[in-house]
Amino acid sequence: MSALPQQQPQFRLMSYEDLIAVCRIEPTIYSHPWTYGNFKDSLDSGYCAWVMEMSGEIVAYALLMMVLDEAHLLNISVSQHYQGQGLGRSMLAQMITVARQRLAGNMFLEVRTSNRKAISLYEAMGFCEMGIRRHYYPTSQGREDAVLMGLAL
């Protein structure tokens, strides 16, 4: 008997109606999650906000801020239950495509220095370390540095 085909993720623009589902995921994967207000403000500001669905369930999301010809990836997240399946790579590829469609010349992001899995993914997708932002992220014991990474599009 052959296995059933794997579900294919579907990408679409994030809507205000998605914020409750997104805000259910956010605190399960981050010690200092974005708030409903942070997401709403991003949508209000016209940021490129996308969700990934599988069988109608939001499993990942990302937000991209465009400034002139630069794209800044503000948040990219995969639901804890779906991590380790390549969905983060797919979501990142989608956001790179969106940035290129918007004629961005470069894409930038920050990532916690302790998040080795994410750094490895970004490097595999062509991002390079550009510097360190000292004390960028809050932690339970104070602050953590961020690696600033960039990709020429």
Describe the structure.
This protein has 153 residues and is α+β, with helices and mostly antiparallel strands. The chain contains 4 helices and 7 strands; from the N terminus they run βααβββαβαββ. It has a 7-stranded mixed sheet with strand order 1-2-3-4-5-7-6, with helices on both faces.
Topology:
Blueprint (H helix, E strand, L loop, with lengths): L9 E4 L5 H11 L6 H9 L3 E7 L2 E11 L2 E9 L8 H15 L4 E7 L3 H9 L3 E12 L2 E11 L1
Parallel strand pairs: 4-5
Antiparallel strand pairs: 1-2, 2-3, 3-4, 5-7, 6-7
Keyphrases for this structure?
153 residues, disordered N terminus, 40% strand, 29% helix, alpha+beta, globular, 7-stranded mixed β-sheet
TL;DR of this structure?
By secondary structure, this protein is an alpha+beta fold. It has four helices and seven strands. A seven-stranded mixed beta sheet has the order 1-2-3-4-5-7-6, with helices on both faces.
Helix fraction by DSSP (H/I, runs of at least 4)? 25-40%
Going across the biggest sheet, name each strand in turn: 1-2-3-4-5-7-6
Radius of gyration: 16 Å
Q: Residue-averaged pLDDT, rounded?
A: 94
Number of strands: 7
Low-confidence stretches: 1-5
The shape, in one word, is globular
